[in-house]
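Q: What structure does this chain adopt?
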Amino acid sequence: MTVSPAALAALSAAVAAELALAAWYLARIRMPRPPVGVYTGGDIAVLCAGVVLAPLLYTALPGAAVSAVFGLVGCLAVQFTLAPLLAATRLRATPWSWAAALTATAATTLAALTGHPGAARAGSDLMIAAAVVGVANLWTQSGLRSVHTAALAAVLTAYDLTATTLTDTTARFFEQVQDRPFAPMLALTGGPAPVAVGLGDLLLLVLYPLVAAKAHGRTAAAVAALLGLLTTSAVSACFALGWLTTGFPLLTALGPLIVAQHLYWRRRSGGERTTAQWREGHPLPLPARSGTEPDAALAAPLPEGTPPGTYDLVRDCGGDVTSSVTGGII
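A:
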């Protein structure tokens, strides 16, 4: 089936714009810290399990129900992405962000119900783009580390390869959401062979450069963004030349690159900055740290009379409120 080279070029341009928008958001907007401590390996395991199990659950639901679920999630994601952005302009962020999110959701739904698939696809794409910027920034600013992102990429690479090439999980899920509003993909064309990038692929494309900027600096972020864009463009070129004709699991190429970058920059920098160190402009490379002690960025002085063994758990998330845990046990 012929794929439009112009649409493929436009997809690479859309990915580049998404990368630039996410980087601008990271540099300008400080998101509220969620009420959690630091990320752990268990958190990443739970996230991976959710990503793996979700398509299996969705394929058991009617297509309309899947669209409703993604529409609701997209509306919430757009709202929390816009809220801190509008707050920075001194507007009343909460009502305006909700108004914008609900308007986008309603307009997309109306376009789909009235037989305007192009408008519905455009609305879905705008919501997906906003949601990815918000989620990637939330995870980055909440303390997600480069090592966790690399682990997530490695697991999702194995899953993407299995679900796309060794089983029919991805194919069945695609058939279910094809040409429906709020489908989890950034799609420039419709039909059985759309020019699109999946939500999971787009999220990793945008997430790692942000985490690299925080953990290892601007050069690492620029390299990550460039490699992600080149990977997307290379796959698009393969489709344009006819070398690829069916869905390609992008993470099988992108995931190993993310892992390799993490290992290189960690070795070169001697570690990775926490969110607090990044906000304070801590220079690289980092001093060596003991693996048995709490992160130095967490060990802020505590009030006199605090019980022994108490240390700060919030600094890593960049929060302004101090909470502590005695003896390191939550």
